[in-house]
Known about the structure:
Layout: H1 4-10, E1 23-27, E2 35-37, H2 39-44, E3 52-55, E4 60-63, H3 73-87, H4 97-100, E5 106-108, E6 120-122, H5 126-129, E7 133-144, E8 147-155, E9 165-167, E10 169-172, H6 181-193, E11 195-197, E12 203-206, E13 209-225, E14 237-248, E15 263-270, H7 271-279, H8 285-297, H9 309-315
Parallel strand pairs: 1-4, 7-14
Antiparallel strand pairs: 1-2, 3-4, 5-6, 7-8, 7-10, 8-9, 8-15, 11-12, 12-13, 13-14
Helix pairs in contact: 1-8, 1-9, 7-8
InterPro entries: NUDIX_hydrolase-like_dom_sf, NUDIX_hydrolase_dom
Domain Nudix hydrolase: 133-291
Protein name: Nudix hydrolase domain-containing protein
Amino acid sequence: xxxxxxxxxxxxxxxxxxxxxxxxxxxxxxxxxxxxxxxxxxxxxxxxxxxxxxxxxxxxxxxxxxxxxxxxxxxxxxxxxxxxxxxxxxxxxxxxxxxxxxxxxxxxxxxxxxxxxxxxxxxxxxxxxxxxxxxxxxxxxxxxxxxxxxxxxxxxxxxxxxxxxxxxxxxxxxxxxxxxxxxxxxxxxxxxxxxxxxxxxxxxxxxxxxxxxxxxxxxxxxxxxxxxxxxxxxxxxxxxxxxxxxxxxxxxxxxxxxxxxxxxxxxxxxxxxxxxxxxxxxxxxxxxxxxxxxxxxxxxxxxxxxxxxxxxxxxxxxxxxxxxx
Length: 325
């Protein structure tokens, strides 16, 4: 069995020693880079015939399409990413192949100047370009006989990190969320658990009945390099930030999954079971960070529980090499 410190290590596998060799990824005239790429990914990609300029002397990839007055810069850049994915469909473990069937999943790019706000990237390309991913997670818990119990989700066999444990509600920020975590939570709560979140009052209902009130909690950051468990995304780099929320529900409330194709089911676990699962690597890595943060905040992990206890909170706030986040 592992340790709580291992939970942090599993989601922070990017080695800082690689930083000096990383390539910058910049877009148009943005004032700062928005991503950092591994040299092996740069070398494997086909860049010829695209608007992505390669500067080997500066170790820089620059997306610089022609943009005329009145053009929709968001749409132009979106098309450039699609074309790049098409050109590289058989490269990089085929990570773009499934996405190209629908071409509907895009991720907002952080670190942009205000004039470029709204630019997006094809989701499977995030880890190639090393942009910051943004997600929202909600811990649902209840109290029975004076003890905290946590509702957890088990991921289906049809998604990445198949069979791993997850928060009841968790998902990536969409471009339409305008970088507002509560908007992401509102959408994901309805899609995954049929829960209606009122953005103004933070009240949560299910089929019109009051369930509880969601509270905004921590901001977690990590810097990962995915391993074989991530499937076609193995080797991808992920600097990430996660907004966390808590929802306490009554002991008799039972949530119901709404996405059977991606969720195997919801299970109520004791804190001791959750601790065991964390140490045994049963959780999806970034979801494990969120659960570790929850247990620390609730005082369920104490100094004697881990020899690296004093480093746990610091480990949940990995410094990322970006500005304008």
